[in-house]
Amino acid sequence: MKWSEISILTTQEAIEPISNILHESGASGVVIEDPQDLVKVWDTSMGEIYQLNPDDYPDEGVIVKAYLPVNSFLGETVEEIKEAINGLLLHDIDLGHNRITISEVHEEEWATAWKKYYKPVKISERITIIPTWEEYEKVSTDELIIELDPGMAFGTGTHPTTVMCIQALEKTLEPDDEVIDVGTGSGVLSIAAAKLGATKVTALDLDEIAVKSARLNIKLNKCHEQVTVRQNNLLDQMDGQVDVIVANILAEIIMRFDDQAFQLLKPGGKFIVSGIISSKKEEVKRSLIQNGFQVVETLLMEDWVAFIAKRPDEQVNN
């Protein structure tokens, strides 16, 4: 089979939404070439040595690549991708150069081209994410391993927005908590919650491909007894109350449903939100406070922000 490589020169801010667009368009595997990876201080406690080739990375901006099968619908698919990416401007997302190029690759090249970018990464005190093809041994007894196949996942779980969510879950989650994961994508946050001790996790995503991807990853990580995946629009038609709601979505989307999140949380419950570019930080924080939340912690990584917000405990009147 022949594959077409679509390459988009864009910005850090646009990585996650463009990756989602590519997956929704049927891409098999997404590669992110971010020059910041060349200067990042990688955690080598696991013994992994990172050797990245500067020639693989752009001089400025970020390149997001995906692989689409060459068929009679390819032209239409590419046009739909371009239209969807341009539509991100309506959400005030900086697309940078937004330069899109197409090239053809053979299956042998495609099968190995993107794997070189993914290695085991320790992203929190306890959690390490590894690609399914890598052999890895725990370095401590309390280390938790999440296996992901980037070929079927919405990202690899190592983007700053995801990392901060997992770190926030590790800080706030109590044994036997119930969790809702809004916009689950690959299911990585639901898997992390289950491995950290949540007894019931509901993973929600509007996209049918994301739902299938999440189910595969959740089963791969043997979390299917704790995690239920549903196709759902944000928190619509959800009832009952849970201990934690986590959402790694665009800032504009978070502000659409933070009032619903407040109602679905138990008193004292936590709302973890990420996917917020630094320029939207105050706007999202203001929306959270206006809807009754207390912002108890702010996490920062590169140009991204995450909040841990709390529904206040109920006060007893004397």
List keywords for this structure.
about 325 residues; alpha/beta; Alpha-Beta Plaits; Rossmann fold; 2 domains; seven-stranded mixed beta sheet; 9 helices
The CATH class designation of the largest domain is Alpha Beta
Number of domains: 2
> H/E order of the elements?
EHEHEHEHEEEHEHEHEEHEHEE
Shape: globular
Describe this structure in words.
The protein contains nine helices and 14 strands. The protein has helices at 15-24, 36-39, 74-87, 107-113, 160-172, 188-195, 208-220, 251-264, 281-290; strands at residues 2-10, 30-33, 62-69, 99-106, 121-122, 127-131, 144-148, 178-182, 200-205, 227-231, 242-248, 265-277, 294-301, 304-310. It has a seven-stranded mixed β-sheet, with helices on both faces. Strand 13 and strand 14 (304-310) form a beta hairpin.
